[in-house]
Amino acid sequence: MTTLINGEPGDSISVLDRGFQYGDGLFETMALVKGAPLLWDRHMQRLFHGAARLGIDAPPESLFRHEAEQLGRGVERAVLKIILTRGVSGRGYAPDKQAQPTRTVSLSPWPDYPVAQRAHGVAAQFCRTMISRNQATAGIKHLNRIEQVLARAELEQDCREGLMCDEFGRVIEGTMTNLFIVSRDSLLTPDLSHSGVEGVMRGLVLERAVELSLETRVTDIDKSDVLQADEVFLTNCLIGLWPVRRIEAKQYPLGRITQRIQEAIADAYAAD
Fold first, then answer.
1. Is-catalytic flag, 29?
2. What is the pTM of this model?
């Protein structure tokens, strides 16, 4: 059993579900280790915040937890994904106020993230596909991910991640990660008030950086800031932290601040 749909084993939902029809919903992807989902409270906080923003009536957190534990029992390591949609309704964009939300909880095998990527860094590139600005959906992890799909298709063979910019040329995030740069001993990450996803690991890094007494700023970042940075790294809840060793022709060292952050969050991801 790898998927529960509204609490029952299954592998399909209705074609009338608004998640399928319109991307009308949210999702969370997290690491599961020894049957327990990591950073659970943070993921649930984002899910429920997103549901409130979209006006979706989410079921109790305890129900998600019960189903996650049911699937994860006896599992050493896997990827746990939760999807919450507005549910089944008729044709048209207008939400059916009587629709009941659909929830799925599923497990997938752990991806191949070699230790070398975390130890020595990865190559990245800037993508041509832009990321949209929309304050109504900024920050939340909604199901509309076609921009990331298109950007991901651009990646050159030796690149593990692509960086996406908005229409004004501001670098917002990676296709599946949040971006941090180090400039003159300050830790900077893009402002996500108009676009992008407020990653769970991003939030933890910002908190741990303060605990390390690092100067930290959420601000606008453009391509030149990235290319002139002293250090660059990427985060999400599955990879933890990837140092960036190269973006196109620019080489970066595995810097001191990157290493300090990596050590500070070591308890929060599923290390190999």
1. yes
2. 0.94
